Amino acid sequence: QVQLVQSGAEVKKPGASVKVSCKASGYTFTGYFLHWVRQAPGQGLQCMGWINPDSGATYYAQKFQGRVTMTGDMSINTAYLELSSLTSDDTAVYYCARGGITPSGPKFGNEYWGQGTLVTVSS
Amino acid sequence: EIVLTQSPGTLSLSPGERATLSCRASQSVSSSYLAWYQQKPGQAPRLLIYGASSRATGIPDRFSGSGSGTDFTLTISRLEPEDFAVYYCQDYGSSPWTFGQGTKVEIK
Hints:
The complex is a heterodimer.
Chain A: E1 3-6, E2 10-12, E3 18-25, E4 32-39, E5 46-51, E6 58-60, E7 68-73, E8 78-83, E9 92-101, E10 117-121
Parallel strand pairs in A: 2-10
Antiparallel strand pairs in A: 1-3, 3-8, 4-5, 4-9, 5-6, 7-8, 9-10
Chain B: E1 4-7, E2 10-13, E3 19-25, E4 34-39, E5 46-50, E6 54-55, E7 63-68, E8 71-76, E9 86-91, E10 98-99, E11 103-107
């Protein structure tokens, strides 16, 4: 069965960087886009962008451009989200979620999600 | 970037009642690439509906989606106790895949 398993909670100081991992199993890792979505405490869902694990192509939402890097390692079926220059506003649960078929196949929304990784930014 | 506005913000209903949730887009959603998700506290979102009206795998038939263009609706025909949650719509027609702000369905 399809599973996305994320790394554990992180506590970071303002100005630091954080790297969250998302290990995929149960499907061909390079066959689907991988999206990152975050949710601040008590707030809604915010799309951060996506990566095509096959080509390495990425899309970053404007709000995060310059601070976010999404990468993938095909050898271990794992995607990574790195966010730099953290502030308290970045305190949130970060989710990875599977997207459509690469490179331009059908898409059905985000059918599979990781369990989420809480990132707390505090001095 | 398409902006999705959901209404109402909160819906107070009793088990067995019908729930109607609205999602309005700032511009037409291409090819009806509109999805609905359910989220319970402490859990990841769960895909309910994609393509505006197709139920995802394992979703009960009391959940239905409709609409096109800029106006979409999620209907829960008879609320079960496990349906009380927050619901989000999402445009996945073009990047970024934006979400509405959510509608909370609470027990009256």
